[in-house]
């Protein structure tokens, strides 16, 4: 075997035991390469690296010398796999070719020999300089430099750098107070922490691999030969990567330094050091991830390229100095010196108190230790307490030092209990003062920074010497961050901060200028009580201004005084936690120090009181034997929303008397006293409830009162919608009748001293909840046996005592007006009926509704009474009546006449009211098939125009001895003027009954007789039927409410008690069923009867409902000791459908109501909503009320005429309300007054409404002219006459009667409305060809012209507008008037 074959076999056997061989077919010797230096074949001979020929062994070397070039090539291909590094084999397990960029040039044996020759005679160091090395570490900074900008590896390295630098910067931002003091260095730390900080700084530099690496890079410099393999690795990219790495390293070192010095525990230092070490390794970890292939093959190959990259070491120049050779050590030493120097400086400053808070502000509660609050305020660092390592400072109360008090408050640290404490250090115990002799202490803590205890609990001892939590408590550093800088941020930009206190600009006040200037004048809130004791305390106090805006202060708050008597004051002052009120004679030194009594160094402020509070006053009563206060306020916690510059708004208490002289007074019983600032300001102290501030004084509106209008007008009898909210308890109840109470200023539900009835539109109480009131009868009277109810009046019988009581509703109470007394033993009041007249009247201070009352006794006699005001007189008696009814308006009385015992009535007699008496009107016989029927019961409509009759035909069966009844009917009859009697309008068959007398049914007709309700009120067989007359005049049934008889109990009661009652409009029903009364309301929208409130719970007899359906009266004669009458009221207004508004008219007459004519017309449709002509004289000063629902989008015209007495005069007046809002009100003089309300077209801007009204007996013409050219000419605007005009029935017969002696024929009326320019002159010319009588009235803005009949018979001109523009002597006008006259 040849030598090459032998070598091949030997090498092949060796290589197969280690790796798979994959040789190339042809290899050039000059291009043979090998992998990394760690896995190359090496041999060690005399500790010197030998050439390649000696690495295989001397035997192989000899063989190689004899090889031919061909054999040598074969050998190279066989050795190639053995020369691949271990890492490369792992990365290329299949034995593929490696990239050339990962390998180094391999020199041939001949070159090796040459190198050996070259190294012959050289020293060892010189030989080392020729070695190869990799100058780049395995980090992303190497990728940053070597990889092309367009490669993924470059951007991966850039991203990692961005993450690393961002993390470092965020940490720096967090640990440095950029807007304040900079470093957050602890005031002091334990000695062991100081040592640990020094050690950590050495560790920080030693472990800063990035810093050491980048220093080495700068020393090694840039290698131009790299460009051969990496064209993008320029000097610029090398420099950028080095600078980036240097910046990150320095920032990280700075972060470690700051965190180390800011931490106050050894564990904290170690934890921070470990955490920051992770930041330093971000680039290395990212590189390892790329090298391991987690970031993809491209990044893996790039990382491998960095790992195997090598360049030849540079030779060291023989002329390098020691600094050049050791500059890495120099940089390291320089950084170390800088960090150690900073460390030493911080330790020195720390031990001297530089990092401690100089001034802090303290706020301590006084619930358990009353004196603690007086030591609130500023505390200054006491440098005399010591210094050095592990030194804790003490803080002394500034105020006690400033006034040279006999003691001072001190905060210090007690090592025994490991807590910060507060104590009072007096001159007597100055030497023995021990922080462990505490009044208040913190929780256990090792902190050197006392301000940190402001976030933990503090404790005091209670009366039992147990420790309890001190609340409130706050303790914060109060140093100026910008000392003596104008516009300092400490002062909110409003002053200069010096020694922790701000000198504020004008208009600002407080330690930090946090308040506007304090109130100069405080007064007791008008809604609260005055200070009450044996002394008469003042109600107003003023601050003391020493000039230039300087105030006399106590605890940085103004002092307020009032001179009680000469030389003595009432003083309101702040005592640190609470405001106090005291008499100056109970203050130390009498609350005054004269200038001559001041000590050296104490300046005179120009006021004895000022001298006392500046140089002597301290709130701690233990500092003075003569010090007590009378009242204390709520605690004021500084720095919270309760903090204030004045005592405004605080509650007050009596100050307790204490036995311990060294203890302050505590709060006692509370009093309802409160201060307000008397001086108003639109921005800082505005007037309340829409009041206006004028020159510091409030001009109140909405009836509010007080210096700031602070007393809302609630519970004053006047409903104000502004205060009708839960916050003001629904205006104190003023908006609902059941809760309102009149006052001397207002009458509930009324205005203008009671002569305008406003109602209760804004009442917000639940509208289906009854409000009840009770009237108790006298013992044994059987009160409530019978009753009746009108608009605001009620009659209740006490028939066992032969009495009938008359009540009027005055506001929310039923007040007895009069008592009617009948003959003894007649059961006077067996049945009663009441009428308040044809008008809806309400009482006012001058008027009570005239009443007509009908009272029946057991003999069947009806006694008629007329009540005018409080005088009731019997006017007549009608005998032999079994059943009767009185119309609500008092105009008709219907009675079924008694025939004989045990016989039903056959005849109904009608009476009509004539001049105060009921005169016979007609008799009515009810027949069935020519046979007279029995009249069982009857009911009249409210206006007396309709009658409902229950009748039946009966006989007597002699065999069975029973009455035989067939066919019970209900008839509705209407009055017929032509026949002078009632004619049947509709008939209803109720039931057919045999062998019994059917009992009377309960029946009721509404006001106009278009709604009928009748029913059977017993539980057994209970029935209720409802019928109504539609617009076509046809009677229709209406579904009745379902009668629930559960729990119903029948009772014995008089047959003829009214058990059914309905409102005027038929929408509400009260029905007694058995022993209970049910209430129902018609829901027009859903067409059903809804239950209205709850059933009445008592056993009842009669029931009556008011015309408006808002009140129900129920009699319970068996209740109580003498019977009970219960009146239920529903709060709230009349309800209107959607799209409708409630229109209310209140009209009060003057002394002559007989000449009043008025109407209310829907101007949009012409519909007359209300109208009335003339009132009886007995209605003088009466108040009439009408309500109706009207469309929201309509215009309405109210016109009232009254020629007699020259108009409507006070207290007479009218008022119109639309949805509770007063839209028109007033009186008038002359003939008429007209008001437009609602959605009416208003006059254009620059014009005012003009109205003309004329009444005349015959032909009349008039013209409206606008004068122009100074009155030299005119333009006709309107002309009208009464020629060929028919009688105007809108003017009522009242005027015909009044003018009967002046007019022949009817009265004509003319009216006209227009919008005219008030700056122009207008003339109205009136002319009657026949010289007829006329009455003229013109209204234009505030101008009103009245002309009597004699003034216009021959023609006359009347001027309105800007009269000075009128030339009333103009020739053309005279000619025009003359033409009319002729």
From TrEMBL:
Origin: domain of life: Eukaryota
Keyword Ion transport appears in the UniProt entry: no
Disordered: annotated span: 1-23, 89-132
Keywords: Membrane, Transmembrane, Transmembrane helix
Record-annotated membrane-spanning stretches: 153-176, 235-260, 330-349
Skewed-composition ranges (Basic and acidic residues): 115-125
Protein name per Swiss-Prot or TrEMBL: EGF-like domain-containing protein
Organism whose genome encodes this protein: Seminavis robusta
């Amino acid at each position: 075997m040849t030598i090459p074959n032998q070598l091949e076999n030997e090498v092949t056997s060796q290589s197969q035991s280690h790796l798979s061989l994959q040789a190339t077919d042809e290899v050039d010797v000059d291009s043979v390469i090998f992998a990394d230096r760690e896995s190359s074949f090496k041999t060690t001979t005399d500790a010197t690296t030998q050439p390649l020929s000696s690495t295989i062994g001397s035997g192989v070397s000899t063989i190689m010398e004899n090889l031919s070039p061909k054999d040598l090539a074969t050998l190279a291909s066989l050795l190639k796999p053995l020369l691949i590094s271990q890492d490369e084999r792992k990365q290329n397990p299949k034995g593929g070719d490696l990239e050339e960029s990962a390998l180094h040039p391999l020199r041939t044996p001949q070159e090796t020999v040459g190198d050996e020759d070259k190294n012959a005679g050289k020293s060892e160091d010189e030989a080392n300089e020729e070695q190869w090395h990799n100058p780049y570490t395995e980090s992303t900074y190497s990728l940053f430099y070597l990889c092309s900008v367009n490669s993924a590896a470059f951007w991966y390295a850039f991203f990692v750098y961005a993450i690393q630098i961002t993390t470092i910067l965020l940490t720096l931002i967090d640990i440095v107070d950029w807007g304040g003091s900079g470093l957050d260095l602890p005031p002091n730390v334990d000695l062991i922490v100081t040592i640990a900080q020094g050690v950590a700084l050495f560790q920080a530099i030693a472990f800063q691999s990035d810093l050491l690496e980048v220093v080495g890079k700068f020393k090694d410099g840039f290698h131009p030969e790299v460009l051969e393999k990496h064209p993008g690795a320029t000097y610029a990219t090398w420099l950028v990567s080095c600078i980036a790495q240097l910046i990150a390293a320095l920032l990280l070192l700075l972060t470690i330094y700051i965190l180390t010095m800011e931490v106050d525990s050894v564990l904290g230092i170690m934890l921070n050091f470990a955490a920051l070490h992770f930041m330093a390794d971000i680039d290395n970890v990212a590189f390892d991830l790329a090298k391991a292939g987690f970031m993809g093959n491209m990044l893996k190959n790039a990382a491998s390229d960095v790992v195997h990259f090598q360049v030849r070491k540079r030779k060291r120049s023989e002329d390098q100095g020691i600094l050049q050779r050791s500059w890495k050590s120099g940089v390291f030493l320089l950084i170390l010196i800088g960090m150690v120097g900073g460390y030493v400086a911080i330790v020195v400053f720390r031990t001297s108190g530089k990092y401690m808070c100089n001034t802090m502000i303290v706020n301590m509660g006084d619930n358990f230790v009353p004196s603690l609050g007086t030591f609130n305020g500023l505390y200054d660092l006491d440098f005399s307490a010591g210094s050095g390592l592990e030194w804790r400072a003490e803080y002394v109360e500034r105020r006690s030092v400033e006034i040279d008090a006999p003691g001072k408050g001190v905060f210090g640290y007690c090592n025994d209990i490991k807590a910060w404490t507060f104590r009072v250090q007096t001159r007597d115990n100055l030497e023995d003062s021990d922080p462990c002799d505490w009044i208040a202490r913190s929780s256990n803590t090792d902190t050197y920074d006392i301000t940190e205890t402001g976030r933990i609990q503090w404790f005091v001892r209670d009366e039992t010497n147990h420790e309890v939590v001190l609340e409130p408590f706050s303790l914060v550093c109060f140093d100026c961050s910008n000392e003596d800088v104008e516009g300092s941020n400490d002062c909110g930009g409003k002053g200069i901060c010096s020694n922790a206190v701000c000198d504020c600009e004008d208009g600002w006040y407080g330690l930090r200028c946090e308040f506007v200037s304090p109130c100069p004048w405080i007064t007791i809130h008008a809604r609260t009580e005055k200070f009450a004791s044996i002394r008469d305390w003042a109600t107003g106090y003023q601050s003391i201004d020493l000039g230039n805006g300087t105030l006399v202060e106590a605890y940085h708050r103004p002092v307020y005084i009032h001179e009680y008597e000469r030389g003595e004051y009432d003083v309101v002052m702040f005592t640190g936690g609470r405001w106090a009120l005291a008499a100056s004679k109970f203050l130390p030194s009498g609350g005054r120090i004269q200038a001559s009594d001041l000590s050296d160094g104490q300046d005179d402020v120009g006021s004895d009181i000022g001298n006392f509070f500046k140089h002597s006053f301290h709130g701690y009563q233990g500092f003075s034997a003569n010090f007590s206060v009378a009242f204390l306020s709520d605690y004021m916690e500084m720095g919270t929303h309760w903090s204030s510059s004045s005592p405004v708004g605080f509650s007050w208490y009596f100050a307790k008397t204490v036995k311990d002289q060294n203890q302050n007074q505590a709060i006692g019983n509370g009093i309802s006293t409160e201060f307000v600032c008397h001086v108003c300001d639109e921005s800082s102290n505005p007037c309340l409830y829409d009041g206006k501030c004028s020159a510091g004084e409030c001009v109140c509106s909405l009836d509010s009162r007080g210096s700031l209008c602070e007393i809302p007008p609630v519970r004053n009898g006047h409903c104000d919608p502004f205060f009708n909210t839960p916050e003001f308890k629904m205006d104190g109840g003023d908006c609902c009748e059941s809760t309102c109470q009149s006052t001397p200023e207002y009458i509930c539900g009324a205005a203008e001293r009671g002569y305008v009835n406003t109602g209760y539109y804004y009442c917000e109480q639940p509208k289906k909840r009854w409000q009840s009131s009770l009237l108790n009868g006298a013992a044994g009277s059987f009160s409530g046996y019978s009753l009746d109810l009108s608009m605001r009046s009620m009659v209740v019988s006490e028939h066992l005592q032969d009495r009938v009581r008359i009540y009027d509703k005055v506001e929310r109470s039923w007040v007895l007006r009069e008592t009617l007394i009948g003959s003894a033993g007649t059961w006077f009041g067996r049945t009663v009926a009441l009428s308040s007249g044809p008008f809806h009247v309400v009482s006012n201070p001058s008027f009570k509704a005239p009443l007509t009352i009908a009272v029946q006794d057991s003999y069947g006699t009806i006694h008629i009474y007329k009540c005018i005001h409080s005088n009731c007189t019997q006017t007549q008696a009608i005998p032999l009546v079994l059943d009767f009814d009185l119309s609500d308006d008092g105009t008709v009385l219907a009675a079924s006449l008694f025939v004989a015992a045990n016989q039903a009535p056959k005849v109904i007699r009608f009476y009509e009211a004539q001049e105060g008496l009921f005169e016979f009107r007609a008799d009515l016989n009810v027949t069935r098939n020519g046979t007279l029927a029995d009249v069982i019961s009857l009911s009249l409509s409210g206006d007396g125009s309709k009658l409902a009759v229950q009748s039946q035909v009966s006989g007597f069966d002699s065999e069975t001895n029973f009455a035989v009844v067939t066919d019970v009917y209900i008839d509705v009859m209407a009055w017929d003027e032509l026949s002078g009697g009632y004619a049947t309008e509709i008939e209803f068959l109720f039931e057919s009954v045999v062998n019994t007398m059917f009992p009377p049914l309960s029946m009721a007709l509404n006001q106009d007789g278009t709604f009928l309700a009748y029913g059977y009120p017993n539980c057994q067989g209970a029935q209720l039927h409802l019928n109504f007359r539609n617009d076509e005049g046809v009677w229709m049934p209406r579904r009745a409410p379902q009668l629930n008889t559960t729990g119903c109990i029948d009772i014995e009661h008089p047959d003829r008690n009214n058990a059914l009652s309905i409102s005027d409009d038929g929408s509400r029903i009260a029905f007694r069923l058995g022993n209970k009364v049910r209430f129902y309301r018609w829901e027009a929208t859903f067409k059903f009867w809804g239950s209205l409130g709850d059933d009445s719970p008592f056993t009842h007899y009669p029931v009556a409902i008011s015309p408006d359906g808002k009140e129900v009266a129920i009699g319970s004669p068996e209740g109580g000791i003498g019977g009970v009458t219960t009146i239920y009221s529903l709060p709230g207004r009349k309800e209107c459908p959607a799209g409708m508004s409630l229109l209310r008219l209140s009209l009060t007459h003057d002394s002559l109501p007989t000449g009043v004519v008025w109407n209310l017309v829907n101007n949009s449709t012409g519909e007359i909503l209300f109208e009335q002509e003339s009132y009886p004289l007995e209605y003088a000063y009466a108040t009439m009320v009408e309500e109706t629902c009207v469309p929201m989008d309509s215009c309405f015209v109210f016109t009232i005429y009254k020629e007699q007495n020259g108009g409507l005069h006070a207290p007479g007046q009218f008022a119109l309300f639309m949805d509770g809002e007063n839209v028109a009100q007033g009186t008038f003089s002359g003939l008429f007054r007209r008001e437009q309300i609602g959605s009416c077209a208003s006059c254009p801007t620059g014009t005012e409404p003009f109205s003309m009204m004329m009444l005349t007996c015959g032909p009349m013409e008039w013209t409206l002219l606008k004068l122009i050219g100074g009155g030299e000419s005119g333009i006709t605007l309107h002309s009208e006459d009464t020629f060929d005009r028919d009688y105007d029935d809108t003017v009522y017969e009242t005027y015909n009667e009044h003018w009967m002696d002046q007019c022949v024929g009817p009265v004509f009326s003319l009216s006209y409305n227009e919008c005219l320019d008030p700056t122009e002159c207008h003339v109205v010319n009136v002319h009657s060809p026949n010289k007829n009588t006329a009455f003229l009235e013109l209204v234009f803005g505030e101008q009103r012209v009245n002309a009597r009949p004699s003034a216009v018979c021959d023609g006359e001109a009347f001027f309105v507008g800007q009269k000075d523009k009128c030339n009333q002597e103009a020739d053309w006008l005279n000619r025009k008037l003359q033409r009319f006259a002729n």
